[in-house]
Amino acid sequence: QVQLVESGGGLAQPGGSLRLSCAASGFTFSRHAMSWARQAPGKGLEWVSNIYSDGSDTRYVDSVKGRFTISRDNAKNTVYLQMNSLKPEDTALYYCARGARFPDYWGQGTQVTVSS
Question: Does residue 96 have a pLDDT over 90?
Answer without folding.
Answer: yes
